[in-house]
Amino acid sequence: METNFYLPSTLEQFHQQFPTEEACIDYFFSTKWPSGFSCPHCGHPHAYITSTRRLPLYECLQCHHQTSLTAGTIMAGSRTSLHKWLTAIFLISRTDTGTNAVALSKIISVTYKTAWLILHKIRHAISTADRGTLLSGIVQVNSAVYGKPYNPYFRNHPQEHYLLAGSSLDIHGDPSYFKLKLVPKIHIKEKLFQRSAALDFTQQHIESHTSSIEFVTGRFSSKRFRALIAFALQAGKSINKNFHGIGQKYLQHYLDEFCFKVNLTLREAPIFQHLAHLCTASNAKLSFFNPQNMPICA
Ligand SMILES: [Zn+2]
Fold first, then answer.
1. What are the pLDDT digits (tens) for 172-192?
2. What is the number of domains present in the chain?
3. How many A from CA of 274 to the centre of ligand 1?
4. What range defines the domain where residue 171 resides?
5. Residue 273 C-alpha to ligand 1 middle, in angstroms?
6. How far apart are the CA of 63 and the centre of ligand 1, in A?
7. Measured between alpha carbons, how far is 107 from 256 in angstroms, rounded to an integer?
């Protein structure tokens, strides 16, 4: 199976490269099984393929387990064609603009509700994979704010969302993986980050054997990590530009999407290919940068 796909950069190129449902099926096969078919039940490398259905069905020659490209993935049970799914993956992969449900619904001719659901599921895969990837090595974390800029008043502004921006540093001291996480309001008191905010972040997002962790949550601390503050600011600007500002409910998904693109760009990994891989990976196995999960880069 061909795995070394040239990656499209415009929608026109995308349509040329993936003109049919069959082309998308082939592509998803290569992102799901970069080394060829592998039975999810027993690992056997050979299957009997039934192609008379809307999507091919693969029956393991050893244990007779039946699977498909979408079984156990975020696309499971969807009646939307794989061509439309891959178009959405392409649009969300773009680093300059991304996409939103209004634009997507027009481009792939589905209802707003369907477009919203597709994007929501893709972002869910990104968020799940990020949760499975912990910061490690030398870790720096700084407080930040999304929404209205800091106001001088004592009370929180309702559109002010408190964040912790963290990164792992490589041996040169440069960030190699970013995370931006919303801080639950219980960890904020009178605009100040409580110690529980750092504890919570450490538990959820940092490897337990990490050699060095530095937290700065004081707004005017001379030790603050300016690069992390700038990163959070850049994320906020990008989200506001593409989505015209959003509420608390889905903000974490948008923050994760922003970090996902930056993290892959740092590693010079192709975003489109990686995202297609995440969307065909089993929901239970989602994580980034697991060498076994990493598709072959074009
Ligand atoms: Zn099997």
1. 889 999 999 999 999 998 888
2. 1
3. 26
4. 138-245
5. 26
6. 4
7. 24
